[in-house]
Amino acid sequence: MTLTQLAGLDAAKHRTPEYMPELGRKLARYTGWTQLAGLIILITMLLLRVMDPLPLSGLRLASFDFYQQLHPRPYETAPVTILDIDDASLEELGQWPWPRSRLADLVDAAETAGSTALAFDIVFAEPDRLSPGRVAADNPELPDLARRSLTEMPDNDALLAAAFARSRVVAGQTSLRRSEAPQSPTGPALQPLPHALIGGDPRPWLLTFPRAIRNLPALENAAVGQGVFSVRPDADGIYRRVPVALVVENQFRLGLAPELLRVASGGGPFAIRTNTAGVEGVVLARQLVPTDRDGTVWPWLSSPVSTRYVSAADLLAGRIPEGRMKDQLVLVGTSAIGLEDFRPTPLGISMAGVEIHAQVLENILSDSLLVRPNYAIGAELALGATLGLVLLLAAPLIPALWLSLGSVILVGGVAALSYGSFVQERLLLDATWPLLTILILFLAMSTGNYLREEQRRRRIRSAFGQYVSPELVTRLSESEDALTLGGETRELTLLFSDMRGFTEVSEAYKEDPQGLTELMNTLLTALSDPILAEGGTIDKFMGDAVMAFWNAPLSHPTPAKAACRAALAMQAGVARLNAKHETEADTRKAHAAPLRIGLGVNTGMCVVGNMGSAARFDYTALGDAVNLASRLEGQAKVYGVDIVLGDSTCRAVEGGFATLELDLIRVKGKSDPERIHALLGDATLAQTSAFEALRHAAEIMRSAFRRRDWHAAHTAADKVQASAAAAGLNLDGLAELYRARTAELQQTPPADDWDGVFTAQTK
Fold first, then answer.
1. Can you tell me the mean pLDDT for 400-410?
2. 552: phi > 0 → left, psi -120 to 50 → alpha, else beta; which?
3. How far apart are CA 142 and CA 152, in angstroms?
4. pLDDT band per the 50, 70, 90 thresholds, residue 134
5. Which of 159, 248, 269, 699 is the least buried, fewest Cβ under 10 Å from its Cβ?
6. CB-CB contact of 649 with 633 (8 Å)
């Protein structure tokens, strides 16, 4: 059996019929557990995306942050100004809170500077503690004159309300979280804002707050609008989204920046457009502001720039350039460190809360908001499912290298599509979930294919292990070079074995061919196991014959001794089989014929390697030593022994085994004579006196035969037979052979140039 046949032995048990087309055979592999596991993983990933647990959403949001960090919005001049209560203003005008009379001056100064409208990122929920009347009431120890003077002075809140009335001002409102809010709002109901609903009720989708923290009624009545500046961070504390529309105390409201834009554009109604996937956008100032499904927007942030800010102290002192605030939409807030109005942003830096609102306003005016359409989740699910199915279908059809390259291309394509959509269209499409799905499926497919390949290798190793040594199996499985044509010159010890009387045994099984197959398998197992146990390589089976060798493909320290031990173990294994058959003789009498084998062992230089064609080859050995080993096996029957050794093998194992020189012969096909020996046992037998007597008798027989003393040779043959019996051996065939030869040569003497070498006429 060739190595090519061996390689296909296991696969033959599993492959589809040869007539099945190649594609059909590959498609048949889809029923494997790897594809089933991959499908389960894909379904699990789809369910996870629908559930959107925190680690998954966090990964998605982090990728969006990364895009903004790679490609922040370039700052362009816009009619948006932050009137900043900064650290310099606090240092010049005093600590916060300022008297609202000063804030009234600030509003008037902005109006005088030409601002279009102004919104406060501040809520004035309580009366000003610095109003003159409040100071008089809180300080009863003041002199009456001072108290009366303070009481007669204008109220600071009234001054601020009057300033609101003289300008277009949006009063800022904030909200309480649901856990902080009472069951129902307190105080008068919120003033409704003019609005329209397009496509259905958006309440199920919008952010909802049960209660608003409002300004003093006088201030809210004087303002032309009220905007909510509450912004919720995501679970990781980053402020990424700002509400455009929301529900507060069951009223539709606008965020601070969009309310400022509504007021600046004439104070008309706004409209909320909704579809089946959620809020689509808010119509504001005669334009649609696209939103996420919950009515929020994703501002595309630029890095903070000083030109966006005007210091409150500079405005009050008249230090700003002429026309700096003309036609500006003004947001009043603070960047002072001590007032702690800073928010972590996707850019990786903290930003004043008022600047986030200002950048939202810039985005709306320049149509540069990031877009996270309400169909995005469906598109991402479809993309991930499609790519996952492509990977599942492709995995069994293409080689591992192409599968890896294809997966890399898919990953790169999804990442490029996502980032390209951000750069070109400002679309926020999640690449992380499809990429994670592809990577997990690829790992699952690769792991499954690896395990399947390991299982296949184990099966092949198991199959090969019945014929070749484990070392060769390991070498073949780990090295491609081991399966290329070519050979190397090595000294090998070769073993040939053959079953004697196979025709007779086969005839006994003519009515039971299955029994014959079982018998041969049992015999070949008994012959193979000792070879493999001694580190040999089984080259091939030839019917009932076996060829094996030692010292290739891996080196062996004592190949000749290993071969001799294997030969004796094979002989013992056959003896055990015969004993077993004898015990079964009552039930299978016709099949109880004893099994006999002959073995030839020889050592010599050979070429060993992969021999054959590029399409089919064997790992085998070639050389004169191989041919001689085969011929020696054939002579075992002639000399009535089981194991015949070549002279080189006998010299290599001298002293370690019981060997007996048989003859000097010229085997068929060779001109040079070879001294041959019988292997009769191990070192224990060799050290007995009976075996020494046998060795001495055999030497006398051979010497007499070669000097043509036929009578002495005949007598010595009898002595050999008796000495063998005394040693527990059966050499009747050897003794009879020499008696027959001496009788023949005595009748027909050889020529004068006869050298005592016997020329074999058969293989």
1. 81
2. beta
3. 15
4. confident
5. 269
6. no
Of 570, 550, 551, the closest CA to residue 643 belongs to 570
Nearest to 323 by CA among 79, 117, 75: 79
Q: How many CA atoms lie within 13 A of 128 on its CB side?
A: 23
Backbone angles phi, psi at 406, to 5 degrees: -65, -40
Q: What is the CA radius of gyration of the chain?
A: 51
Tell me how far apart the terminal alpha carbons of the chain are, to the nearest angstrom: 22
Asked if residue 328 lies in contact with residue 361, where contact means CB atoms within 8 angstroms, the answer is no
Which alpha helices (H) appear in 479-593, and where do they start and end?
Answer: 502-508, 513-533, 559-583
Q: Which residues pair with 243 in a beta bridge?
A: 296
Distance of CA 195 to the CA centre of its chain: 54
Predicted TM-score (pTM) of the model is 0.63
How distant is the alpha carbon of residue 174 from its chain centre? Answer: 49
Phi, psi dihedral angles at 35 (to 5 degrees): -65, -35
| Closest alpha carbon to 98 in 67, 113, 73, 120 | 120
SS3 679: strand
pLDDT category of residue 390 using cuts at 50, 70 and 90? confident
Confidence of residue 468 (pLDDT cuts 50, 70, 90): low
> What are 487-516's pLDDT values in tens digits?
789 999 999 999 987 777 777 777 788 888
How far is Cα 12 from Cα 18, in angstroms, rounded to an integer?
A: 10
Measured distance CA(672)–CA(759) in Å, rounded: 10
pLDDT for 229 equals 94
